[in-house]
Amino acid sequence: MKRYALGIDVGGSHISCALVDIQKGKILEGTRSQGEVDNKANKEAILRSWIDVLKVTLKAINKEDLAGIGFGMPGPFAYETGIGRFEMVDKYESLNGIDIGIKLKELLNLDISIPFRFMNDASAFAVGEAWLGSAADVDKSVSITLGTGFGSAFIDSGVPVVEGNYVPKMGCVWHLPYKNGIADDAFSTRWFINRYMEETGVMVSGARSIAEAAPECSKAAGIFEQYGNNMGEFLGPWLKKFDAKILVIGGNVTRAYHLFGPAFEKVLKTQGVDTKVKLSKLKEDAAIIGSARMLDMEYWNLIKSTIPKM
């Protein structure tokens, strides 16, 4: 079996990748590459920015030794076919209806037979953490990513759970109602920006500025405490219902966990939730590792029926 897969994490404004030894379960050092992407650009510009990054990593391997390429891709996306469904969303709209696999194989001069596989980016993060990261020692885990969006996935024995009585529709929580909107409104960066504006009349660019102000500003500190309380209230019932042993938290907002984590964990305890909370061990590598794992045939056979339901 070919043992090296290219794992790719496609973000809203970046792309990063690395070669992964799927037999040993480790990233090959020296093969990481990343770059910025303008998600509002035309399709040629977006694909070119991706290609420039991928080519750097592919130089480290003979194409004959490549098991395939796995993508952690944001939705909406037809993961089973590799076709973009970015219609009426605020990113990658020029890739709507585009067969990403076919276009990239052409641009990378790869044989049409090389497997390209796609998974939701939050699911890829969760798979990586369940395989080699903070949830590697348990069967049931939930992973969330806190940043410009609110990513989430439920994992049982390494496989994303996307349907059934114990998880929300699609196996994620961003779309669920919460307070006067949905969870993505309440737990993404824009909540911090809007809340800080309400409290102080000051416009900031992200949660980092508020976190930096928190030691000297009681209003900033209070916003993080409110965030932790709200997230505990929202996530607690789902963690309990799924019987998650570990909750893994990743994303840029985790740098401020010391500001919202105590409130979050306190609310979980008051609900009788005994899920252990861990910060991401793999961080930016998690989605790369998780997406590359799709090229392990044994694992692929476990999850391929799940991919169309993401």
Concise structural overview:
The protein has 310 residues and is α/β, with parallel strands linked by helices. It has ten helices and 15 strands.
What can you see in these coordinates?
With 310 residues, this protein is of the alpha/beta class. It has two domains: 4-123 and 285-309, 2-Layer Sandwich (Nucleotidyltransferase, domain 5); 135-279, 2-Layer Sandwich (Nucleotidyltransferase, domain 5), CATH 3.30.420. It contains ten helices and 15 strands. It has helices at residues 43-58, 100-108, 121-132, 183-187, 189-200, 207-213, 218-242, 257-270, 285-292, 297-303, and strands at residues 4-10, 14-21, 26-27, 33-36, 66-73, 77-78, 83-84, 116-120, 140-146, 150-156, 159-160, 177-178, 181-182, 246-250, 276-279. Strands 1, 2, 3, 4, 5 and 8 form a six-stranded mixed beta sheet that branches. Strand 10 and strand 11 (159-160) form a beta hairpin. It starts with a strand and ends in a 7-residue tail after the last helix. The relative contact order is 0.16. The model has no long low-confidence stretch (mean pLDDT 96).
CATH architecture of the largest domain: 2-Layer Sandwich
Quick one: overall form?
Answer: globular
Tell me how many strands there are: 15
Report the portion of residues in β strands. Answer: 15-25%
Write out the CATH superfamily name of the largest domain.
ATPase, nucleotide binding domain
Helical amount:
25-40%
The residue ranges in which pLDDT falls below 50 over 5 or more consecutive positions are none
CATH class of the largest domain: Alpha Beta
- Radius of gyration, rounded? 19 Å
The end-to-end distance, rounded to whole angstroms, is: 28 Å
How many structural domains can be distinguished in the coordinates?
2
Q: Output the number of helix runs.
A: 10
Compressed to H and E, one letter per element, the order equals EEEEHEEEHEHEEEEEHHHHEHEHH
Main β-sheet: number of strands, strand sense, barrel status?
6 strands, mixed
